[in-house]
Amino acid sequence: MERSVAQASKPNLQRKDKTSLRDFLNVIFRHKRKICIFFVVVVLAVTIWTYLTAKVYQSNAKILILIGRESVSVDPSVVGPTTGLTQSRENQVNSELVIIRSRILAEKVVDKIGVENFFKKPGETPSPSPSAGGGNQAEGGVLVSLDLTPGLTLREKAINHFMKNLYVEVERKSHIINLNYDGFDPQVAQNALNSLLDFYLQYHITVHRTQVSPQFFEDQAKNLTKTLNGKEEELEKMQNEFGLFSVLDQKKELIAAIAGLQAEISGATSEIRSSQARIASLQMLLKGTGPVRMNGLQSLPLRLETETYQSIHAQIQGDLSSGTFFQLQIANEITRQESLAARVNSLNEELAGRRQELATLASREILLQRLQREVEILNGEYREYRNGLQRAKISTALDIDSISNVSIVQRATAPIGPIRPKKIFNILMGILCGLLGGILLAFFIEYIDDSMKTNTEITKRLNLPVLASLGSLRVPAKFDALQDTGKETQEPSRYTGIEDKLIPLYHNLSSELLEERKGKTIQFIGCNPGEGASTLIREFAKLTALRFHKKTLLLDINVKKATQCKYFGIEAEKGIKEAIDEGADLQNALNQVGDSSLYISQISLSASPSALLDSPEFNERFKELKDDFDYIFIDSPPSVTSPDGMALCRKVDGAVIVIEAEKTRWQVVANLIETIKKQQGVIFGSVLNKMQFHIPRFIYKRLL
């Protein structure tokens, strides 16, 4: 049987599990009502909001930031060395943006225009404008209409409103600033923006105003003049007193004199050493003999001219024997040496004096340089203060005349028409958002929906064969009596459509499942009420009996809601339970439908059949019914409302689970399958009932 069930559902198992255009359209058309409702609600909401919301008017102005004194990174009035650095133009423009957006300017604009004027609409008469601190006046109507945040005064709310609707931005690749203000009244918007421009120009001059007054520079310059004069007099006095008019030349002269003295001392010292050497040589000759003396005399370092030597040679030769010559020479050398020593001493004294003069000159030079440096510093400071005085006077004059580097290119314009709401744009966006939102909503609902919709979902989630997929069975509300005349039906035009839908189910059950196992009893059971299980089994029983001429018993065990006998217009006198309890023949509990081979019976007319279904008497009588009928179809109550169907599932040959498409959740079906398996029942498969084909036929044909 399991092999036959698998074969019966084989086409469903071979279907590829992938999303196609058909699946997409199926979701769209399945939830078309939700999409339409969402679309209509969104479009209506956007349209109503567009036409009810207050109109907003925009005024525009432009200002140009030029290069001026505000561009200098150091204030021109600050004393000291100013650098050539300037602010980046981008930083300067951004600084002006911050100033324009400052709250202090917004407060001034609100106080000038009037608090109530910011909330009035065109044509309305504004209330008297409260004062700067009168924020608690007349708040009722405006607050209610605008739904403003409670806890703030009306003035604070007007300031916040102005700042929120003021848009300031820099024109790309330029130094022009665009100012836009959105207001409810065009005239108020223009006046507010013009007031902002006027207050900004004043505040800009105040922010960049000179930090020090000209009087400060003038006082400082006078003080420096007195100090500078004193230092200059001191410098002049020192130069006159010490003759320090050309210190460099004086130093050069002293250094040259010292160098000359040092050279003379060095020469005299060398001569003294030579004299000492000659004296030593003469003393050695004086101690020797005649020839030696002569030889020694010839070897004296004294270099006499040849003529002198020849003239005195005879005299010297005569004095050599007595030694008078050498004594005379020694005495001369000693006298000469003493003269040289005295000269060296005199030169040293003069050298010391020159050095002292040089040291004194150096110390006086340091004092002179210090005084000159102080005078130079005072001169520099004096010039700075004089320049600062001139700049301060110029800056003050510019401030007085309200001259700055800000130029108004365009004053606030008068709005021609409202910029918001953009009716056509809003409605088009509402249509687009409604359509896309509805589609997204449909797919979201589809994503969270756990109901079974297709055969593939049943096979994939539950591993359960699908015996047939049926649409809604449109059957007459009341049964018309039919007789089995050997023909298919007495009114084929009425039932042919239903039969065509049920024939695949009949073939799957009878030709393969039942004949292989000799099965005769089939239980149809659903999970929830309203899934169409009773209608399905009734029409299937009619098909089996009237078209295929099988003796068929339709057994209704739904005691609480027995509908089968009522549909066929049969008043049941007894049920199976009552017949067994009375010991009567079961034929008394069977009700034939006309002259056909279809019989209807109820398990019980009133009491619950739970105890009966487990009794041996029922098993024996139920076996008799199996032998008497070709097929027994059991209409069971939904599993969530009654356990009677579960008590009977192990006594039948197999069960068919009826699943309502797009309603029955797979978790509920899985729980029913688990319960049947616990009762040792057999499941033939499932029937997907009440399938809906949402895609229109003319579109569906083009998707094939």
Quick overview:
This protein has 704 residues and is α/β, with parallel strands linked by helices. It has 25 helices and 12 strands. It has helices spanning 2-8, 10-13, 21-30, 32-52, 89-100, 103-113, 140-146, 154-164, 186-207, 214-242, 247-286, 290-298, 306-319, 324-400, 423-448, 455-462, 492-517, 533-547, 564-567, 576-582, 610-613, 616-628, 644-648, 666-678, 697-703; strands spanning 57-65, 166-170, 176-183, 406-410, 466-471, 521-526, 552-556, 591-592, 598-602, 631-635, 654-660, 683-691.
**What portion of residues is helical?**
55-70%
Mean pLDDT comes to: 78
- The total strand number stands at 12
Name the overall outline.
Answer: elongated
Poorly predicted regions: 1-16, 128-148, 289-306, 483-496
Q: How do the strands line up in the largest sheet?
A: 5-12-11-6-10-7-9-8
Main beta-sheet strand count, sense and barrel state: 8 strands, mixed
SS class:
alpha/beta
First-to-last CA distance: 34 Å
Assembly of the depicted chains:
single chain
Give Rg in angstroms: 64 Å
Strand content: 5-15%
What is the count of helical runs?
25
What does this entry look like structurally?
By secondary structure, the chain is of the alpha/beta class. The protein contains 25 helices and twelve strands. It has helices spanning 2-8, 10-13, 21-30, 32-52, 89-100, 103-113, 140-146, 154-164, 186-207, 214-242, 247-286, 290-298, 306-319, 324-400, 423-448, 455-462, 492-517, 533-547, 564-567, 576-582, 610-613, 616-628, 644-648, 666-678, 697-703; strands at 57-65, 166-170, 176-183, 406-410, 466-471, 521-526, 552-556, 591-592, 598-602, 631-635, 654-660, 683-691. The strands form two sheets. Strands 5-12-11-6-10-7-9-8 form an eight-stranded mixed beta sheet, sandwiched between helices. The protein is elongated and about 195 Å long.
